[in-house]
Amino acid sequence: MPSYDVIIIGAGPAGMHAAQALASRGQQVALIDDNPDAGGQIWRGVNNHATQPARAALHSPHITTYYQTRVIATLAAQQLLVETPNDAHILHYRHLVIASGARELLLPVAGWTTPGVTGIGGLQALVKAGMPIANKRVVIAGTGPLIWPVAAFLRTHGVHIVAIVEQQSLVRLARFGMHLASHPRKLWQAMSYATQLIGVPFWHDSQVTAISGTTHSTGVSIQRGEHQFQLACDYVALGHHLVPNLDIAQSLGCATTPAAITTSDQLATTIPHVYAIGEARGIGGLDCAIAEGHLVAAVICQDAPAIARWHHRVQTERRIATAIAATFTPPRLPPLAADTIVCRCEDVSHGQLQHAPDWRTAKLQQRCGMGPCQGRICGAATQHLYGWGPDAVRPPLRPARVATLALLYAISPTAE
Amino acid sequence: MSQSHVIIIGGGIVGCACAHRLAETGWRVTLIERDTLGSGATAAGMGQVVALDDSPAEFALTADSQRRWHALGQANPLVHEYTPCGTIWVASDDEELAMAAAKVPNYHAAGLQAELLDAAALYRHEPNLRPGLPGGLRIAGDAVVYPSRSAAWLWQQTGGTLIHAQVSTIQAGGVTLADGRHLHADAVVLATGSRARDLVPALPIRPKKGHLVITDRYPGFIHHQVAEMGYVKNAHLADVDSVAFNVQPRATGQILIGSCRQYDIHTPEVDPVMLGQMLQRCLEFMPALATLSSLRVWTGYRAATPDGQPLIGPHPHQPGLWLATGHEGLGITTSLGTADLLAALMNHTPPAIDPTPYLPSRFFAPTSSLL
User: Fold this and answer.
1) Is ipTM > 0.90 here?
2) Same domain, B95 and B212
3) Residue B334 has pLDDT above 70, yes or no
4) What is the rounded distance in angstroms from the CA atom of residue B148 to the CA atom of residue B169?
5) Nearest CA in chain A to B38
């Protein structure tokens, strides 16, 4: 069984920097990511001066990268079952770093299952994967700091951004802007997005209430106060901020809140040998993730001066996380029509769910959350809409080949 | 005339079926369920409707129930997702094929369809089985259903009162709930599956844990419920941990993969080694399963009795208490036959089949006061 000093789950900015910093101290590191390359959901395939050196450093002989690899189960005795495109492995670790990042919260609105409607990050991923988008008309709507870099990214790919529709108030956004002013690099970043987005209509205090189109999206209805507007477009990118990916931590038994994996200020979770960094520790952005990557390496290697240095940096960067959380609060949703689909895997509508007493009844009687996404999309939506709690986390953490799970017959209950 | 009132404890498929049948025969019914209807083992099981001839008692109840499911399913196939796919019992060697051949007359004598398959016929029906198998037995009248929804549907037909609560004790003339309320009834039916001993500790019921896997949608990958002939030998009777190949096509195109049995495990967590052993067994029979995407794994508890037959009938020492539990892995199938039998006993009407093998009194010594 392959064994590593440290296994890092997630090759986004936090995971990459942790890998680089651990390898430079001589640790044998495995870096696991579901995607075909390092960089994370936002920065993968983007030339970014902040992440480029760490990406280059992944070629270290101390680092084994497992791309297109999913963690399927966390096992006893510090073992993980992982699946690659053609194979599966059981890996052993001395220390585990969870840098599992975040995913977009995607909430239902009338017409959201129409082809042409995607998540904001989802549209960016499609474009990175080669979807032709030049000269298409796109509306970006929802809430969260993700809107701006993705809008800028899309514009550089020749997209005609019809409008950015942000549901937060201008006052609240301005307060967030003031906060950025004390982080010069972030202010610079924000201004560079603003520059790239000059001329794009920005609708604050507004939300998309319906998406029109049958075989493909053709437009959106926008509500601003008492007023309704219609805009024609080819694509709609929707997102309601980010939610951290907690399931691997929960599978290990780590304490979590809905917003983060619970950690000490030295990044230790409540389970021995397991650490959490980056967005999984609470949405904090790129610089925070990088600092925590460095800090976790220093903590694992007990490098006291580096711990002191990076700890201070993390404290500073985490202040922006607080501001993000205060600004981009959970979204309000327009009242849903009974025929609006909530669980798109199993085609379950709001009308079928609104009178169900709980998530379990909805699953058993309506199959809500029982499809391939396993409630990763509709689970968050039903939490928002109906206040239903999430399920206990069980393996497989992601869909896995039967042969992968069959490999478990041979695992040892104790470390070798 | 005032109706007699029965309280049924447990809203799984057995409790709901009993409520349905008792309401049909004139009882006023109250159902008490601690979770949601059709949860527990009802939700955790495969939803199989199978006629099994491994003992006369098992055969009588499963054959009777298979017919009842056919009538119910044909009348309302969408509710129950009734899919009359049949079962193929796969023989792994000539000895098992001879066993299969010997079963055919039994089924025919009971008026059920049964067909011995040679190797060619076996692969014509199920090409994804591994090469080299000698044949099997096809029971065309078997089916699969979606039992959680069936349970809720059976209950909805009764017009009875549903109470979401936990029962703390059963006493003569009714029950007491955990919140202190007393409910009165002329009769109480205990249908809480593997948890029956929480309320009647002396019952000979042991929980037998199982794991199941469900895949993404692969319509046409299998056409029947397909299980190894050794299933009963490996699964029902063994007193040790066991695994057996058993796969089932769902109405959605998904495949359910089982099965395994573990005694006296009380934690619901997925046991990775057991799961791995179960899937290895399935891959031996059906290697093409290897690349299918499994979405979800869960566990549940069957209510096992020492002789493998359920407990249906009066509690021998507690007047007014009736039992409908201990259905092991066959509770979905036998729920309808159980309900009919229990109602006949409670109504003093002639039962459709001989109730003797299922009477709870078989496990109890006569009380000294009666001697």
Assistant:
1) yes
2) no
3) yes
4) 26
5) A364
- The tokens of B88 are what? 């193929």
CATH 3.50.50.60 at A3-103+243-326, yes or no:
yes
Enclosing H/E stretch for B142:
none
> What percentage of chain A's residues is helix, strand, coil (to nearest 5)?
35, 25, 40
- pLDDT: is A180 or A76 the higher one? A76
Strand-pairing partners, residue B223, are none
CA distance A92 to chain B (A): 16
pTM: 0.91
pLDDT in tens, A279-322: 999 988 888 999 999 999 999 999 999 999 999 999 999 988 88
Homologous superfamily (CATH) of A106-240 is FAD/NAD(P)-binding domain (3.50.50.60)
**A414 CB near a chain B CB, below 8 Å?**
no
Burial of B239 (0-12, 13-18, 19+ CB in 10 A): exposed
Question: Do the domains A106-240 and A3-103+243-326 match in fold?
Answer: yes
- Quick one: tokens of B11? 């809203």
Q: Do A401 and B269 touch (CB under 8 A)?
A: no
For residue A115, pLDDT over 90 is answered with: yes
The helix (run of H) or strand (run of E) holding residue A309 is helix A304-327
A72 vs B: CB within 8 A: no
Residue B21 belongs to some domain of the structure: yes
**DSSP string over A133-167:** -TT-EEEEEEESTTHHHHHHHHHHTT-EEEEEEE-
Rounded Cα–Cα distance for residues A31 and A64 (Å): 6
